Amino acid sequence: MKKQAYNPYLPSWEYIPDGEPYVFDGRVYVYGSHDMFNGYVFCMGDYVCWSAPVDDLSDWRYEGVIYPKTSDPFNKDGRMCLYAPDVTVGPDGRYYLYYVLDKVSVVSVAVCDKPAGRYEFLGYVHYQDGTRLGDRPGDEFQFDPGVLTENGKTYLYTGFCGRGDKSRHGSMCTTLGPDMLTIIEDPVFVVPGCEYSSGTGFEGHAFFEASSIRKIGETYYFIYSSEVMHELCYATSDNPRGGFKYGGVIVSNCDAHIDSYKPADMRAAPAGNNHGSIVEINGQWYIFYHRQTNGTWYSRQGCAEKITVQPDGSIRQVEITSCGLNGGPLNGKGYYPAYIACHMFNENGGHPKVTQDGKDGDEIEGHIDGIVNGSIIGFKSFDFKGVSEISIWARGYAKGRFEVKTSWDGEILAALDIDYTNIWWKYTANIAIPDGVRSLYFKYIGGGNPHFKGFELR
Ligand code: FUB
């Protein structure tokens, strides 16, 4: 790899949640929504695409705008947002983009000859009499399409189930014919929402949103965001239109359930909605998901972690890290930006936040603010060897110290005293980090609210 790969995997000034990863012709393409820095609602941008060669997951290329939000006939004035999309290759070899706008319950389709060219609006998914899916009396709410095409049929999964809404039953599968628009098999519910999960095996992890579908061997894997929102779960079946059994949690964007370094119910990062999917890249499976930044749900960023599909087809929950696509721990020496922190929490509740200077689109490296006395910021993980000095860059109205540790509640290995400064200021201390693969934590003790830009290990 040319560089090391971090989480988030795209530049820190890019905000692409809901990522659906696919490998086409030797490159990984990610199709997601497009949030903005300081966005005041979800998904304020046009769809853009990023891709990377399968043999260098650090080398992401901006493919540009693939679909402006005003391309949909229902949205000529740009009043609505493009919610989470998905892409599938049709029987004609072209690429089909499925999405819903945020204020209408119909599924739109756009098409392109290339994975990341300019997609053109094609039409709305409809029954054979021309009635749009979502418009027929009795149709349930259409949301977050996930699509898979095989043998001339496209399986379209949609739905959104809020707590207390008995009109929503779960995620539904609708089968489309080779024109990619016309329904040939009516919707059937495949995974229950929380109002209908009792006795199904999905209790506590019922379907909320973010339908996504993949196939491994002969097994269909339905990936979705559960009723607790921060976790991506999976269910499996040998039939795309039914028989799905709950499998488990693959990732939680706050590491809920993980008890290897903290209590299982402790949230190691700001929890928020989640959406993504699994993909095999060069023989390794990954889960793509997103995290929340800037203290809101409207500036989300894509992250990824390695997963293992066990011989029995099961997938165990993986931890959130700073280095998901890197293939292993980060080099134990060098400069690292603070925005790659995977753990951010305060001793007395709440979380610091990743943010950036400037406005949306300004290519300025992100940093962390919202730091208070007792804030803990962690990075996972590094392969340390012979580290003897550490520097940090901080600024802001603050006077105190950053303690450095290799576990959030562990021994203090160094302390860096900081003072008021209006510009990024470098502070250095000697440290002896034991060799080996470990996390790195910074705990702030003091007054005020420092900003944290990055650190260097030597
Ligand atoms: O990005 C907008 C919406 O938030 C998506 O459609 C949902 O899946 C959730 O991630």
From TrEMBL:
It comes from the Bacteria. The keyword Hydrolase applies. The keyword Hydrolase applies. Keywords: Carbohydrate metabolism, Glycosidase, Hydrolase, Polysaccharide degradation, Xylan degradation. It comes from Candidatus Faeciplasma pullistercoris. Signal peptide: none annotated. This is Family 43 glycosylhydrolase. GO terms for molecular function: hydrolase activity, hydrolyzing O-glycosyl compounds. Belongs to the glycosyl hydrolase 43 family. Pfam families: Glyco_hydro_43. One of its GO terms (biological process) is xylan catabolic process. InterPro entries: Glyco_hydro_43, Glyco_hydro_beta-prop_sf, Glycosyl_Hydrlase_43_Enz.
